Amino acid sequence: MSQLVTFGPGRQLVGILSGDPASSAPLVVLPNAGLIPRAGPFRLHVELAERLAVHGIRTFRFDTPGVGEAPRIAGCGMREATIAALDHLAGHHAAERFVVGGVCSAADLGWATATCDRRVVGLLMLDGISYTGFWFHFARVGGALRRGPRAWSGIAARLLGRAAAGVAAAATGAPPFTASDRGWPGRREARRQFAALVRRGTRSLWVYTGGYADLFLHPRQFTAMFGRVALDRRVEMHYWPDCDHTFYARRHRERLLDTIEQWMLEQGRTGWGR
Amino acid sequence: MGEAGGWTPQWIGSGARRLYSALHLAPKGASGLGVVLVPPLLHEQFRSRRLVTQVAIRLAAAGISCLRFDFRGSGDSDGPGECMDLASMREDVGIAVAALRDAADADSVAALAFRGGALPLSAWLEGGGQVGRAVLWEPVVDGAAWIDELVEADAVELRSTVRYPLRRGRPVESDQAQLMGFGISPRLRQDLSRVQVGSTAWPGCPGAWGVLRPGVQLPTLPLTRVFELPADAAHIGDSTRMDGALFVSPGLQRVVDALALALLQARPCMHPEPWVDDRVEARGA
User: Fold this and answer.
1) Please, which of B108, B119, B190, B251 could form a disulfide with B195 given CB 3.0 to 4.6 Å?
2) What angle do CA B76, B3, A47 make, to 5 degrees?
């Protein structure tokens, strides 16, 4: 049975806790993804909670301040709210270890929380941190070549348009999208942080989708971003170019749910934190 | 369960299939009037989550206790989307109305349905459900036409090159068990397609009001009062995307306040006086 939980400053935030209260597995914490309320994209979080509850694994989904039902709270942003959720679950629901993450901004929150809180032993990085580089541009050029000469003029026009937009944005002081818009660290810092997370035993499941094509286009991009640590046994990465960013199609959502469920069970078998 | 920002999250209903709801109690000494907010359906429910919450907060501040809820198989309520059909939705409306009557000690309850929420509300009222007034916010009136629109919009999403830039227009296969990204039963599609709001009398509801865009006419509905939405009011139904949030704008605040005042003023007249559709009477004769 799911349980309603109020937490945070003045207990103004609301979350839903599912699963077996006696479970010793890490509790999966799912903040809202972007502006989508806590039930998740197309109820992804609800379906994941039901899947994991079958194995007794607990999940906690909640709205961060200013999203869904949650009021804006002075001094309490997304990261503070996530830490408050962890504190509340630890203090009132005997949770000691957590897996944090989700799609897009929820993945960012997972990363930000994990780097400052050792209770986070697992990360769900669904279209999370990404840095372009050789393999990204290689895939982009390859894709353009495969589309044939008739498509090249259109591609060139779009690239020129983007360049012009970048120049215009720079002229007005409004930079185009950058990693810093998502609160990501610089590439070198991210690599260092990830190595430290893996060293301390943090497990992570990464999925990049075709809906993230502006940032991720080739599976080898992942190793290029993070180095040898990306090949560690505690890191699992999938590239699903046929899926969109919010897993609109039911069959894609099922694939994601299967993958997360199996990943959680596998980590349970091999031992979290090792 | 404690309060969360002036309202209380709670489960209503019983057994394994509970409904998520939020109770916004009016301050003490309030009117004894309550409003059940019936949510929009599918992607529109997610898009409007914040707007509906803000409307409830505003009505409660005006002295009207409110209850928001999610239909079984939707939002945060229990159950998969496939368990939702018109019968379960009608039952859910009844559960929500009863829960508000009990929790707020409301002697008079109105229903405020947003967009597609008008379809199950109408079905519930046709079955004898009783409220003092129904308020329909940009209602979906023709269930069949709306489902057709959604089927088309769903197909557009599945072949969208914005959503699927690497599929190059090759559509994702779909099936009858999905609509607008949500798992639903084929039965729900059929059920909603049969609903025509206003085509059958509502014996337990004395009258309906509308909250509509200027110039919108709903000739099939005998609306006795209409509140016009301002230009800055969010369009719940104008996008298929659920990753946008809609808010109560300053102009919309004034409309909600006017609606609250009108509900309070009309309250003495909100005892069920059956609305008999004279067109139905005429056909019967």
Assistant:
1) B119
2) 15
